[in-house]
Amino acid sequence: MDWSTIIEKIVTSNDIFRLTNEETLVLYDSAPLHQLMDAAHHRRKLHNPSTKVTYLVDRNINYTNVCTINCQFCSFYRPPGHDETYTQTYDEIRQRIVELENIGGSRILMQGGVNPALDIDWYIGLIKELRIHHPSIDLDCFSPIELEGIAEVTDSTTLEVLIRFKEAGMHGLPGGGAEMLVEKVRTDVSPKKGHPDNWLRVMEEAQTLGLTTSATNVIGFGETNSNRIEHLDRIRQQQERVLSQGHIGFTSFIAWPVQLETNTFGKRNRGSNRFELGAGASEYLRHVAISRLFLDNVPHIQASWPTMGMGVAQMALLGGADDAGSTMMEENVVSASGTTKFSASEQELQTSIIRSGFSPQRRNSDYIHLETPDTTISLPDVMCSPPNQVVELV
Ligand code: SF4
Is the pLDDT of residue 389 over 60? Predict the structure, then answer.
């Protein structure tokens, strides 16, 4: 089996036929990037035939940085008792949502550390207050590891916690915390998160309750291409099962490279010969294309501008991605590890989409299209790519 035969089969077919793990590995290892991106774009048009690229006006809220999990790639958390810990009050969180409402946003993505000082009543009180005062904002809150922490403190199961949160008004979960769903890699970089099955189990519980979910993937821990395909395969298999039960499953998939600058993982490997750590633009674009080709049952692939820069994200839109992510307004977890830019105006996103050859379309968390204002009046003045982001296509 050679890569050119597989590519030819993809680009000459109007069916979204399933690629095997073996075929995908051949493509990952051997296909030239431009042909991978062409094939992924062909598939993108079969999944999403429109020339629209969607985006979301939302805000991240990182409500607490107290965490007991100590992931090696994380520069955001502080252990309990550290003098730099914080936990936002209900009023502080609400103030952030008011700012989002003022720019017409539709969703908050709220996640933080695993903070043992917060019990389930604190969370339920928060969700109820936000639901009452901000009814138009979708509340996508708490990644699987936070839910596991809340369940542990409460002496209940994650399913029971999810049921109570849904009753209080929670809309969905952020996709964070999946990183690399391969036991060997997870044990190395995030041993306290436990087995990859935990993340998948919590997500499946949420999906069966009708909560909105997405899937994420962090690359660049020194894993192999087979490991990356194993991660994608875990998601594809779960999606298959959940869809067959009549649920919506993961709405989208987004990957980004681990940020190495200021965390234990980066320091631990600095000066080593582990040249394969992290991922540059070409490696990232390769992974986006592979994910579009492999994940035949996940409707949307997002480009990650916060970690790659807007220029690379624009290229991802030409190689499998159909969504430009969101404005974010504020993000503290990934950016704490050294990314250069962590918020974009709606104008920047729209301009970047237009310059990639697509038309911008506002959406909500469920990918329902919303009315889209034209913010591109002063288009030439908009900076589309941070100056320190270099597009390296090799
Ligand atoms: S990534 Fe999340 S779970 Fe891991 S240490 Fe950071 S805040 Fe805690």
Answer: no
